[in-house]
């Protein structure tokens, strides 16, 4: 039957139809909906969890795969950095049940710190990788990935990109899930599952012997296709295959077209067949020149005089997303008779910039503002982290001086303080990120007697990626209620003796908490606890007394709340945006703003 599915839903359904038994992951755009879509199936045979981070997720899945179950791990490309430690070893140890690690890449990047290419990581880790070009391919390809993983006894990487993850299509799917045998359970085999140097050496030899055979197998894989004829050739992979097909609509010139769905191990026989027929090749791919380098390698290996164009010689951009327009321009330069792409129409000039901002009523705005006011006139550094609160760097708050990766706020603050002892160093971290990667840094700070102020921005959810539960929320992805893990108790157990918990929307109390903490030494923590406005019912909008308002713009200039604006030289509130948090009413110098009824 046919279903209209988003790419992530197609991947999830394909995994279910492949007999997956355990799914673990950590939320990260553009991968998040995969795990959530599996959970929505409510299949009693499938266990689903949001793990505390990607490393934990991969290790949980590895244990289940050791026991013969098919497992799925989900993350985005930067999450693979966190999971890389166990994955590199697991590549040597192998698995018994099929294990697919879905790593959604984010060319652009649209919502990430980096533009990493998981295909390059596949080569580095010596693991096979699948690169679907559409939701339709993704549905079937994830099932093929499980089959390959189980037959070869190895984890397999699966690399959809943002446009595959979030595009939608009518997809032919199975009308019911096939029946799979029960996993046989864990069978003790220390020679296999206990990794030792000698075993790693032997496994390395096995992997080097295995991968060329997988590459040969990939040369006949149904999604690796070579079509057409001529002396010029296109080579495409992933979403660029879809873009190329659209760009080629109406063009009737002769050319060869190689579509590569399995970049590593590269399907050498198919690539060599192309190079034996073509004189000149244009490679279209995102992000690294993975296919381009593989073809150049084949030219050298087999002494083939073929010119390869792509990212390395500037035919296509070296960074960022591809598009139909970008590929049309490359094809115009490559083909002698390709029609000239239309010149883009002039865009309207002087359009206002619309940068991302904290939501109206976001408690993080109140937290940042309280710290800013308490530290006025003092030398301070504000180390940020990954999450909604990264937007605290925007004006007028301007409260994020560093942002590297998840959990780095705590440790970077320690390093700055060691070099600059006259600076008060703050680290801002969210509640979900604290559990994912912040605890280690706090342990390091206490153990090494650092002098920092830890600010935990606890909004009771994983807000940036879609409000997923975490260990502090008291619920799991399976819908069960668990004991809420207390951030205060964790900090106490680590050895943090100065801990304050305050509502950031209580402006005076929040400022006092920061001022008091700044007078102390050592590791001290302030937990600003107030729920995300997306998970609680908003209060009525604030009311502005136009008689009292003097048009000073302090509320707008200090807070930058999207719900506040000027109207006839007076402050005005956009009622559809205002959540009634009341922060603006607490800083208005003329008391012109009030919560309704107060």
Question: Can you walk through the features of this model?
Answer:
- The structure is a single chain.
- This protein is of the alpha/beta class and about 600 residues long.
- The chain has 4 domains: about 1-220, Rossmann fold (3-Layer(aba) Sandwich), CATH 3.40.50.970; about 225-335, 3-Layer(aba) Sandwich (Rossmann fold), CATH 3.40.50; about 365-530, Thiamin diphosphate (ThDP)-binding fold, Pyr/PP domains (Rossmann fold), CATH 3.40.50.970; about 540-595, Alpha-Beta Plaits.
- It has 20 helices and 22 strands.
- The chain has a 6-stranded parallel β-sheet with strand order 3-2-4-5-7-6, with helices on both faces. A 5-stranded mixed β-sheet has the order 9-11-10-12-13, with helices on both faces. The chain has a 5-stranded parallel β-sheet with strand order 14-15-16-18-17, sandwiched between helices.
- Helix 1 runs parallel beside helix 6 (about 135-150), helix 3 (about 55-65) packs parallel to helix 4 (about 75-95) and helix 16 runs parallel beside helix 17 (about 485-495).
- The radius of gyration is 27 Å and the shape is globular.
- About 50% of the residues are buried.
- The model has no long low-confidence stretch (mean pLDDT about 95).
Task: Summarize this structure briefly.
With 598 residues, the chain is α/β, with parallel strands linked by helices. It has 20 helices and 22 strands. The model has no long low-confidence stretch (mean pLDDT 93).
Widest sheet: strand ordering: 3-2-4-5-7-6
Rg calculated over all Cα atoms: 27 Å
Q: What is the overall shape?
A: globular
* Count of spatially separate domains: 4
Q: What's the CATH H-level homologous superfamily of the largest domain?
A: Thiamin diphosphate (ThDP)-binding fold, Pyr/PP domains
């Amino acid at each position: 039957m046919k279903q209209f599915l988003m790419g992530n839903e197609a991947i999830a359904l394909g995994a279910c139809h492949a007999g997956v038994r355990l799914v673990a992951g950590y939320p990260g755009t553009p991968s998040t909906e995969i795990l959530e879509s599996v959970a929505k199936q409510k299949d009693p045979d499938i266990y689903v969890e949001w793990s505390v981070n990607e490393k934990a997720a991969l290790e949980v899945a590895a244990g289940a795969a050791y026991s013969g179950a098919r497992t799925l791990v989900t993350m985005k490309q930067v999450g693979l950095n966190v999971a890389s430690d166990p994955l590199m070893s697991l590549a040597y140890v192998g698995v018994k049940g099929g294990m697919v690690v879905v790593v959604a890449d984010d060319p652009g990047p649209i919502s990430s710190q980096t533009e990493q290419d998981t295909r390059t990581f596949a080569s580095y880790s010596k693991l096979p990788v699948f690169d679907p070009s559409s939701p339709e391919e993704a549905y079937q390809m994830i099932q093929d990935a499980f089959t390959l993983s189980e037959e070869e006894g190895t984890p397999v990487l699966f690399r959809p990109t943002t446009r595959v993850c979030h595009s939608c299509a009518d997809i032919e799917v199975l009308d019911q899930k096939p029946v799979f045998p029960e996993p046989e359970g864990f069978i003790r085999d220390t020679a296999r599952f206990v990794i030792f140097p000698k075993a790693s050496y032997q496994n390395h030899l096995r992997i080097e012997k295995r991968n060329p055979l997988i590459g040969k197998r990939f040369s006949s894989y149904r999604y690796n296709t070579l079509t057409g004829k001529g002396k010029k050739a296109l080579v495409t992979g992933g979403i660029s295959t879809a873009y190329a097909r659209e760009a080629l609509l109406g063009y009737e010139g002769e050319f060869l077209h190689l579509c590569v769905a399995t970049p590593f191990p590269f399907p050498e026989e198919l690539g060599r067949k192309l190079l034996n027929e073509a004189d000149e090749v244009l490679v279209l791919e995102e992000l690294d020149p993975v296919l381009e380098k593989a073809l150049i390698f084949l030219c050298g290996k087999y002494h083939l005089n073929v010119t390869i164009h792509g990212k390395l010689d500037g035919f296509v951009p070296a960074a960022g997303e591809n598009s139909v327009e970008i590929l049309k321009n490359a094809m115009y330069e490559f083909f002698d008779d390709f029609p000239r792409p239309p010149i883009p129409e002039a865009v309207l000039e002087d359009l206002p910039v619309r940068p991302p901002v904290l939501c109206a009523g976001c408690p993080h705005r109140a937290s940042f503002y309280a710290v800013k006011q308490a530290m006025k006139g003092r030398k301070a550094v504000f180390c940020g982290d990954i999450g909604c609160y990264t937007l605290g760097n925007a004006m007028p708050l301007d409260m994020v001086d560093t942002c590297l990766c998840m959990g780095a706020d705590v440790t970077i603050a320690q390093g700055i303080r060691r070099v600059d002892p006259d600076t008060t160093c703050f680290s801002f971290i969210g509640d979900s990120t604290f559990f994912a990667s912040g605890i280690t840094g706090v342990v390091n700070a206490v153990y090494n007697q650092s002098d920092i102020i830890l600010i935990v921005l606890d909004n009771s959810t994983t807000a940036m990626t879609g409000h997923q539960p975490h260990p502090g929320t008291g619920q799991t992805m399976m819908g069960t209620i668990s004991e809420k893990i207390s951030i205060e108790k964790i900090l106490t157990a680590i050895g943090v003796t100065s801990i304050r918990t305050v509502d950031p929307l209580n402006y005076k109390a929040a400022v006092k908490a920061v001022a008091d903490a700044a007078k102390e030494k050592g590791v001290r923590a302030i937990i600003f606890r107030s729920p995300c406005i997306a998970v609680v019912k908003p209060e009525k909008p604030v009311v502005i007394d136009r008689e009292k308002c003097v048009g000073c713009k302090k509320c707008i200039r200090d807070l930058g709340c999207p719900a506040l604006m000027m109207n006839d030289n007076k402050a005005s509130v956009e009622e559809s945006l205002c959540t009634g948090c009341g922060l603006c009413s607490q800083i208005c110098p003329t008391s012109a703003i009030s919560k309704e009824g107060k």
